[in-house]
């Protein structure tokens, strides 16, 4: 039997000095360590939460009872000692009693052996944990199947891997130490806790453990969150909670993994070191199939002289965070910037010169709100967001005969957005689509998302912000989702059938009557429908489980649906999701501003999943309207939204913007001339447009936003500089340079209009002078046209044009 | 009159046969005359535009037809067929209603140049590829308006998409499916309708008829799904009453048999329950008619036998789920499957419950999703479809389907494909015959043997037959049952029906045209029906009559099982082949089999021999065997 620390681990301490305290599990007065395997990571914390654990000087009042290294306590003999930590001219003390230091308890394989393999990387996907194992030895991935692991170790290969008569001669240990050739090198150190635990397990006759042994119920990390100065370190302590209420320190047995390696690193002992960038970082702690998270805010610490007045709840949460971080926000952006920014973000196009002029001339204090409303009411909004959703919903043409379905599905999306169909209804009409594609276009989703596993995974990723792919074959490594969860979700789609359609490649979708069940890939068990912890077991044979799924998704208390959407939309406007990636929401990947995510989600539910209202409130916020120009402090901010983060225009928007600037009409085969790239119904047009391809228009092959490339590349730069089709447009009689050359208005007026088209502002005096000088060099008609071609070309190659800022 | 002579069948080198591709405008106004243009293939020497309504007359004037619609004509869809030198074409649909009709000006492909139309009027137009048509209409405040754009029901390839815009171009309403846009105006003013094909396709084959209705638009059109054949019998009264309040077994509507319930799948995910008392050992027939009415429904039926336990509580003893009707004698060309469930079962004593629902109606509360539920004691019945069939492609690997008509040259023989829809377990033999044939034209004997649901009926003409055209009827008889076959037609040529669905539908008539001048290049006839003893091997003699420049070998395919193939040389005037009655397992009785023959030759379209061109003619024939267990086969 394992010796356990009997009291829950909560913040309790024995404070011996004003500046320091030793944080340990909740122990009234004295910390008890019972048994030879008892371990304890204690933390030394100063005022304001500063961690001194790793730098403190540790002393034990008597020898032979307790060893301590950087706060990690190992009992060596029975007795009572006083543990003293000294740092920063202060000390703290803790009384520790050790009992049974020579007593070894029977080992439970799942609780004590398997975590050793995980910690040492033996059962990782690149080693023995991969499908088929490594060099004939196989372990379950990350130890999610202890029963299998036991068989692999103890029964497979005529049990040659373990030698109970002489545990130290076991192949398992000799290979693990690298004594015998081992592709993975030496992983175990002789005499280490892990070595001794394995040897002891073998020596005990390789017990599996008893059914009645306590099961791991959760893990908890301490501290849970900290504000950390840049360059600071924080020791973590991890406690495992078991089904019998007992707890155990497993700090040295867990894996630590930061979610942003630009901000922090963590070593195998749980020491977190943060770098120089401000922001938020989470360190995932994984032990067996349970995870916990330590969150650290890394403030800049600058003084904030002035904070804008919050316009709405968004600002309240963002500004509160900025205050905490000491991160002064940028100024509010000017009108010219705003009209261009919001038109691009909401309508996916540049404002026309007339729109820009009218907006700039408008003296109304509500003009920004009015503009937002007007954009939301325009069909450009529907076109732009339909383009976004069509890609995510895999509206893909892989066969010319798919065109009817892709046009219909895109049209349905666009109309749904134009009518502001509540998002829960939109999602329902997709995941529970039935019928014929031409009559009910969302059925087209099932053409590309054909297989049940794809339906599960796309639904989870798109609408619930959860990536379930891993759980098809093994327990999710970063989440609580197991194969049971996966196949329950699969059962939701188990009765979704297809019938031959009225047109080739257009199968009809329906739900067969009966009890929906999906077979668990591993156990073969017929799983009842459910979704991410919810059970739909009460379904009757007549019920469509997909409708039940939609009911569950759209319930106000659903913890996934609204969050996933608001995070996705937040990223659309701010370039960075509150959770990144935007479709990977999980406990181990927390939001940079959880309160804001919660507030957005709550508000989205309150407004009955009103997409336009969400966009409206985001765009109305002072946060959205901050300038992208950094102040002296916030240039390094990447996640607190202290300024608007500039973003390169998406492929379609850029294509349309270039055409708008040049004055060229887009021409795509199969749609009317003038159809803009954001209005294209499917991916098939990419093949004929190098521009769209090189700037990363997605092929609609996955439900991941990551398929859309926002990266900059040399090929893009060269295309804008030299592409033949762009040069031809610039030189075309029908395009803007030729028209400007012919236009008899004063050159200054024409240049002002040109700048308004490109960047929604008038040229500065310097820009005007430069342009005028260039025109003056080429006064005759033909050369003036060439001069205008130069100016337009130069404008479309400016960062100010290429970026929304 | 534009005639397309470069067509698929000519390219295959077959003999010409009139085919009608387009008729434009595709509709007209009751009480008025409309000038229509037809296009197609092999439409030389057009004489007539046959319309399936005697109240509608067409007169040929300067290569066009003036179609006069009598004031007594009823609104609805008619069929028109072009009849000329090369026979009667396939049908094209033509809409008749009371709305004044104008043509699309063709200059209305921009918002600014929208074509004006009045409320309660119609415009006939064609979609242009990659373009959009705009129409403007003045509407009063709070005006209900329904824009109805008919295309598919008029055989067009267009799938209309409509948007209603205000005078400033702001989008007010949309209709991407169904061709119907309804809107109530917020204020008086000019509104603009934007119309295009879903995929921005266009051209001659993408015609439409757009109507702007001020109050209500006319209802739907008669069901034309192939599987709808015979449903009229099923939906005869008496109708049972129903209500919205039968959405659970406990509230099931009680039915007195026979019962026909007329109700609707409304609202979304509606479930209706019925119950009836059955007699032990009796067979019952349960059928839902909905998808076959041309609707996008997918009815499903659950039949439960209900018993009572010792405590008197109801419990379900048996459950039967009935989905689609998958029997498809028509194959890819005439797909007769249906999503409507049909089921025959032998009952046990007691109560039965029937649940009816629409598997497709999941989200939209749509009152326009009616269904008929038929519950009755089983009674044998059948329905027939009769359709002309194009000659098979010379390359047998091609999976083509082609619109076709009935055209007999002198001394000719042509096939009609007859498909049987056997219902309620009916398995009897059906004897086929044809009514309405002119002198000199006969139908060869043909039967649908017990269990068979496909047969070929041959029409044959004498060598001196006079020119004639008119509607004919195919009749099937089995004992007391007599059913008239419903005509069917293929809408558009399909190059590979494995890649593209064939659109075929129930037509109004089968129209036959007989040439009084042109003879078929080769006539093949069985000299007499062979008498034979079951199990014997018999020789089948055929006579061959050649005309004109058709003096090359003839390849025969005899459609026994397996197909027998042989060839005769270019001088042969007769042919003989052997069949093994034992191998064919023919029971006593008369049996008829079709023969296809092909032979290359030179053909003159004008008939004067000056424009001879190489073609390969397909010639049909048939032979019969009278099988007897007692009588020896007579020598031919």
State the gist of this model:
With 805 residues, chain A is of the alpha+beta class. Helix content of chain A is 35%, strand content 15%.
Question: How does the SSE layout of this entry go?
Answer:
The complex is a heterodimer of chains A (805) and B (636).
Chain A: E1 12-14, E2 20-24, E3 30-34, E4 40-41, E5 43-46, E6 57-60, E7 66-69, E8 72-75, E9 79-87, E10 90-99, H1 109-119, H2 146-155, H3 171-177, H4 193-203, E11 216-222, E12 225-227, E13 233-235, E14 237-242, E15 247-249, E16 255-258, E17 264-266, E18 271-274, E19 279-287, E20 290-298, H5 313-325, H6 335-347, H7 353-361, H8 367-377, H9 379-392, H10 403-418, H11 423-431, H12 445-448, H13 452-464, H14 483-492, E21 496-499, E22 508-511, E23 518-519, E24 526-527, E25 530-531, E26 534-535, H15 545-554, H16 561-574, H17 594-606, H18 611-620, E27 647-648, H19 651-662, H20 690-694, H21 714-722, H22 724-730, H23 736-742, H24 747-759, H25 765-776, H26 781-796, H27 799-802, E28 803-804
Helix pairs in contact in A: 1-4, 5-17, 6-7, 6-8, 7-24, 8-18, 9-10, 11-15, 13-14, 16-17, 16-18, 23-26, 24-25, 25-26
Chain B: H1 8-11, E1 19-24, E2 27-29, E3 33-41, E4 48-51, E5 56-61, E6 64-69, E7 76-84, E8 87-88, E9 92-97, E10 101-103, E11 115-116, E12 121-126, E13 133-139, E14 144-150, E15 160-165, E16 171-175, E17 180-184, E18 189-197, E19 207-213, H2 231-234, E20 239-240, E21 253-254, E22 259-264, E23 271-278, E24 283-289, E25 299-308, E26 314-322, E27 342-346, E28 350-358, E29 370-377, E30 381-388, E31 406-410, E32 413-423, E33 430-435, E34 441-443, E35 446-448, E36 454-461, E37 468-478, E38 481-484, E39 486-490, E40 504-506, E41 510-519, E42 522-526, E43 530-533, E44 537-546, E45 554-558, E46 564-568, E47 574-580, H3 581-584, E48 589-604, E49 612-628
Parallel strand pairs in B: 2-9, 10-12, 11-13, 20-22, 21-23, 30-39, 31-41, 43-49
Antiparallel strand pairs in B: 1-3, 3-6, 4-7, 5-6, 7-8, 7-9, 12-19, 13-18, 14-17, 14-19, 15-16, 15-18, 22-29, 23-28, 24-27, 24-29, 25-26, 25-28, 30-32, 32-36, 33-35, 33-37, 34-36, 37-38, 37-41, 39-40, 42-44, 44-47, 45-46, 45-48, 48-49
């Amino acid at each position: 039997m394992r010796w356990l620390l009997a009291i829950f681990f909560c913040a309790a301490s024995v404070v011996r000095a004003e500046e320091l305290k030793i944080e340990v599990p909740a122990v009234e007065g004295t910390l008890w360590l019972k048994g030879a395997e008892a371990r304890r990571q204690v933390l030394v914390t100063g005022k304001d939460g500063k961690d001194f654990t790793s730098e403190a000087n540790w002393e034990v009042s008597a020898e032979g009872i307790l060893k301590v290294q950087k706060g990690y306590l190992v009992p060596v003999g029975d007795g009572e000692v006083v543990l003293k930590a000294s740092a920063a001219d202060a000390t703290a003390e803790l009384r520790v009693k050790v009992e049974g230091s020579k007593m070894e308890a029977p080992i439970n394989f799942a609780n004590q052996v398997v975590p050793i393999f995980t910690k040492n990387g033996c059962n990782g996907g690149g080693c023995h944990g991969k499908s088929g194992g490594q060099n004939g030895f196989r372990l379950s991935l990350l130890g999610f199947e202890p029963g299998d692991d036991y068989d692999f170790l103890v029964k497979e290969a005529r049990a040659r891997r373990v030698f109970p008569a002489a545990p130290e001669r076991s192949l398992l240990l000799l290979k693990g130490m690298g004594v015998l050739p081992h592709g993975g090198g030496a992983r175990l150190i002789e005499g280490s806790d892990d070595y001794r635990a394995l040897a002891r397990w073998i020596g005990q006759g390789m017990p599996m453990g008893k059914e009645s042994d306590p099961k791991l119920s959760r893990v908890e990390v301490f501290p849970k969150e900290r504000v950390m100065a840049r360059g600071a370190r924080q020791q973590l302590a991890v406690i495992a909670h078991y089904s019998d209420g007992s707890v155990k320190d497993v700090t040295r047995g867990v894996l630590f993994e930061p979610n942003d390696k630009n901000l922090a690193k963590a070593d195998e002992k749980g020491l977190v070191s943060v770098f120089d960038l401000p922001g938020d970082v989470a360190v995932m702690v994984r032990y067996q199939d349970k995870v916990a998270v330590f969150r650290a805010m890394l403030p800049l610490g600058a003084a904030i002289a002035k904070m804008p007045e919050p316009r709405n709840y968004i600002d309240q949460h963002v500004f509160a965070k900025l205050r905490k971080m000491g991160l002064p926000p940028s100024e509010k952006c000017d009108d010219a910037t705003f009209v261009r920014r919001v038109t691009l973000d909401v309508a996916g196009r540049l404002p026309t010169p007339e729109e820009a002029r009218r907006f700039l001339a408008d003296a109304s204090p509500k003009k920004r709100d009015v503009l937002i409303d007007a954009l939301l009411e325009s069909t450009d909004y529907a076109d732009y967001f339909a383009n976004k959703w069509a890609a995510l919903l895999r509206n893909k043409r892989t066969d010319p005969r798919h065109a009817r379905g892709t046009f219909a599905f895109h049209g349905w999306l666009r109309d749904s957005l134009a009518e502001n169909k509540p998002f829960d209804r939109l999602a329902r009409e997709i995941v529970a689509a039935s019928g014929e594609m031409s009559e009910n276009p969302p059925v087209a989703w099932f053409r590309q998302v054909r297989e049940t596993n794809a339906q599960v995974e796309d639904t989870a990723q798109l609408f619930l912000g959860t990536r379930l792919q891993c759980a098809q074959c093994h327990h999710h490594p970063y989440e609580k989702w197991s194969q049971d969860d996966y196949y329950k979700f699969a059962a939701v789609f188990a009765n979704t059938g297809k019938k031959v359609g009225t047109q080739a490649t257009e199968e009809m979708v329906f739900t067969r009557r009966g009890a929906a069940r999906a077979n668990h890939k591993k156990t073969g068990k017929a799983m009842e429908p459910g979704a991410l912890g919810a059970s739909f077991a009460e379904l009757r044979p007549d019920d469509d489980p997909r409708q039940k799924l939609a009911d569950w998704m759209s319930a106000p208390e659903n913890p996934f649906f609204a969050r996933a959407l608001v995070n996705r939309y937040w990223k659309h406007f701010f370039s960075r999701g509150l959770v990144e990636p935007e479709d990977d929401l999980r406990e181990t990947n927390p939001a940079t501003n959880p309160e804001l995510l919660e507030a957005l989600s709550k508000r989205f539910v309150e407004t009955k999943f009103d997409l336009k209202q969400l966009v409206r409130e985001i765009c109305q916020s002072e946060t959205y309207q901050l300038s992208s120009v950094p102040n002296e402090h916030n240039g390094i901010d990447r996640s607190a939204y202290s300024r608007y983060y500039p973003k390169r225009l998406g492929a379609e928007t850029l294509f349309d913007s270039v055409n708008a600037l040049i004055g060229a009409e887009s021409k795509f085969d199969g749609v009317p001339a003038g159809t803009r790239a954001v209005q294209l119904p499917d991916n098939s047009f990419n093949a004929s447009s190098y521009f769209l391809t090189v700037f990363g228009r997605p092929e609609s092959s996955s439900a991941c936003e990551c398929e859309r490339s926002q990266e900059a590349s040399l090929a893009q730069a060269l295309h804008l500089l030299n592409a033949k089709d762009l040069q031809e447009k610039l030189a075309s009689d029908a395009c803007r340079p030729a028209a400007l050359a012919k236009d008899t208005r004063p050159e200054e007026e024409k240049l002002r209009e040109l700048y308004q088209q490109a960047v929604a502002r008038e040229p500065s005096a310097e820009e005007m002078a430069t342009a005028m000088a260039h025109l003056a060099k080429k006064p005759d008609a033909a050369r003036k046209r060439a001069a205008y071609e130069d100016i337009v070309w130069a404008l479309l190659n400016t960062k100010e044009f290429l970026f929304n800022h | 009159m534009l005639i397309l002579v470069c067509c698929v069948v000519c390219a295959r080198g077959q003999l010409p046969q009139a085919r009608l591709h387009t008729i434009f405008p595709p509709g007209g106004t009751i009480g008025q005359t409309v000038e229509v243009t037809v296009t197609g293939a092999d439409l030389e020497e057009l004489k007539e535009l046959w319309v399936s309504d005697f109240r509608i007359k067409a007169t040929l004037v300067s290569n066009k037809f003036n179609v006069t619609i009598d004031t007594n004509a009823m609104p609805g869809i008619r069929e028109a067929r072009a009849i000329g030198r090369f026979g009667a074409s396939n049908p094209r649909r033509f809409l008749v209603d009371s709305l004044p009709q104008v043509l699309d000006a063709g200059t209305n492909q921009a918002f600014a140049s929208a074509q004006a139309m009045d409320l309660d009027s119609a415009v006939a137009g064609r979609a242009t590829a990659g373009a959009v048509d705009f129409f403007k209409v003045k509407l009063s405040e709070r005006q209900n308006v329904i824009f109805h754009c008919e295309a598919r029901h008029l055989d067009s390839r267009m799938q209309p998409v409509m948007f209603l815009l205000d005078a400033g171009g702001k989008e007010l309403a949309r209709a991407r499916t169904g061709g119907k846009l309804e809107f109530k105006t917020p204020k008086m003013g000019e509104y603009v309708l934007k119309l295009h094909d879903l995929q921005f396709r266009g051209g001659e084959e993408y015609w439409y008829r757009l109507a702007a209705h001020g109050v209500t638009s006319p209802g739907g059109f008669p069901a034309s799904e192939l599987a709808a054949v015979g449903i009229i019998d099923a939906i005869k009264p008496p109708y049972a009453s129903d209500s919205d309040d039968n959405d659970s077994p406990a509230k099931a509507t009680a039915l007195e048999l026979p019962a026909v319930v007329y109700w609707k799948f409304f609202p979304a995910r509606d479930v209706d329950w019925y119950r009836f008392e059955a007699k032990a050992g009796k067979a019952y027939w349960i059928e839902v008619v909905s998808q076959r009415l041309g609707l996008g429904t997918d009815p499903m039926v659950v039949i439960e036998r209900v018993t009572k336990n010792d405590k008197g509580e109801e419990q379900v003893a048996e459950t039967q789920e009935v989905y689609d009707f998958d029997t498809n004698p028509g194959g890819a060309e005439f797909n007769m499957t249906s999503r409507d469930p049909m089921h025959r079962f032998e009952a046990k004593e007691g109560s039965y419950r029937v649940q009816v629902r629409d598997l497709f109606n999941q989200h939209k509360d749509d009152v326009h999703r009616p269904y008929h539920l038929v519950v009755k004691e089983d009674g044998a019945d059948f329905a027939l479809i009769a359709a002309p069939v194009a000659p098979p492609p010379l390359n047998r690997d091609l999976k083509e389907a082609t619109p076709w008509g009935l055209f007999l040259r002198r001394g000719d023989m042509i096939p009609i494909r007859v498909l049987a829809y056997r219902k309620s377990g009916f398995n009897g033999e059906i004897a086929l015959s044809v009514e309405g044939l002119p002198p000199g034209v006969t139908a060869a004997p043909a039967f649908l043997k017990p269990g068979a649901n496909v047969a070929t009926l041959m029409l044959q003409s004498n060598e001196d037959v006079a020119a004639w055209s008119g509607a004919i009827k195919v009749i099937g008889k089995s004992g007391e049952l007599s059913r008239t076959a419903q005509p069917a037609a293929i809408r558009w040529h399909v190059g590979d029906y494995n890649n593209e669905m064939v659109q075929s539908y129930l037509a109004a008539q089968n129209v036959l045209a007989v040439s009084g001048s042109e003879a078929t290049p080769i006539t093949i006839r069985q000299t007499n029906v062979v008498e034979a003893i079951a199990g014997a091997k018999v020789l089948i003699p055929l006579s061959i009559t050649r005309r004109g420049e058709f003096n090359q070998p003839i390849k025969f395919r005899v459609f026994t099982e397996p197909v027998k193939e042989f060839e005769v040389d270019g001088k042969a005037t007769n042919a003989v082949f052997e069949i093994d009655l034992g191998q064919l397992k023919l029971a006593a009785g008369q049996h008829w089999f079709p023969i296809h023959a092909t032979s290359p030759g030179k053909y003159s379209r004008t008939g004067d021999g000056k424009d001879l061109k190489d073609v390969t003619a397909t010639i049909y024939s048939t032979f019969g065997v009278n099988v007897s267990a007692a009588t020896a086969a007579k020598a031919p």
